[in-house]
Amino acid sequence: MTAPGTSDGMHDLDEAALTRWLAANLDGVAGPIRIAKFPGGQSNPTYRIETAGGTIVLRRKPFGPILPSAHAVDREYRLISSLHPAGLPVARPLALCTDDGVIGAMFYVMDHVEGRSFWDGTLPGLDAFDRRAIYFEAIRALASLHRLDPRALGLQDFGRPGNYFARQVERWTRQYRAAQTTSIEPVERLIEWLPRTVPAQTGQAIIHGDYRLDNLIFDPARPVLRAMLDWELSTIGDPLADFAYLAMNWTLPADGRSGLAGWISRRAAFLISTRRWRSIAPRPAGTACPTCTGISPTTCSAWSASCRAYAGA
Q1: Contacts of residue 198, Cβ cutoff 8 Å, sequence gap at least 6
Q2: HSE toward the beta carbon, residue 9, CA cutoff 13 A
Q3: Residue 308 reports pLDDT greater than 90
Q4: Most buried by CB count within 10 Å: which residue of 4, 85, 140, 181?
């Protein structure tokens, strides 16, 4: 969500109805407004709304039939309404509309956060030290999310009890069956294999569910995270799932998206030779990590491994 992809008039919202709703529900908002749809493959379409009182962002369910429990923007709104006061970098939520009759689907609006989004995980245009700082900040923020107590935020019922990994496999299978039109043998084998091999859950926390670099907005000039985006898959689960999803990018090809494999090794010799390498060297089990203070030694070692991997070790 770096910039809107269409100009005024090139969108699929009822502008008049939306203007009336915004004026009735937000202070300082009145027509005329300007709407632009953000590019990208968001499963919940997202729009930039320019008003006389400032710029806001609208995020809605898709129009038409959808799978049960999917695209729950009301869950997203509830979550960021709890995370924002807790100091986590998320956009400030403004209002939720549950009336499909306004624009054709449930939606919510939030503050627009200016900054940088990085679609290419190799961070072209940044030097080695800035790249390191960006990834350290992403990991620090994720650890901050995982340290939050769901009960203290009123989110104790935000996820189902039981093994998160098993729940995910069950959910994916159920959604696949609901949308299935033909039988694909490799998928059938996977559906049979996954329930037998899910790992035990090692912890419980609020997890993002889709934590990757292009779902983050950084300060325009500094390696400071200003907002985590796209909370559609968030729940209560094992924090190592978020870590594994982020670390997966070190094994995916560097093809202009989040993947880093094949790109890192060309820079490993230089990065390892720098004095800054010492700050991301392996730590003995049980010692404190200044980046991830407050999480278990096992997880802390995992974060350090992630940082070392990015440096090419």
Answers
A1: 163, 165, 166, 169
A2: 0
A3: no
A4: 4
CB atoms within 10 A of CB 123: 16
Q: How confident is the model at residue 1 (pLDDT cuts 50, 70, 90)?
A: very low
CB 217 within 8 A of CB 116: yes
Cβ atoms of 131 and 118 closer than 8 Å: no
How many angstroms from the chain centroid is the CA of residue 193?
28
**Contact in structure between 223 and 254 (CB atoms under 8 Å):** no
From residue 90, alpha-carbon distances to 37, 237, 302 in Å are: 20, 19, 25
**Among 80, 77, 36, CA closest to 55:** 36
**261 has which bridge partners?**
253
Please give the single-letter amino acid code of residue 215.
N
Cβ-Cβ contacts under 8 Å for 44 (sequence gap 6 or more)? 59, 60, 61, 62, 71, 73, 76, 230, 232
What is the per-residue pLDDT across 257-307, written as a single tens digit (0 to 9) for each? 888 887 765 455 334 333 333 343 334 344 444 334 333 434 444 444 444
Name the residue among 61, 14, 18, 57 with its Cα closest to residue 42.
61
Residue 307 · residue 135 · CB < 8 Å = yes
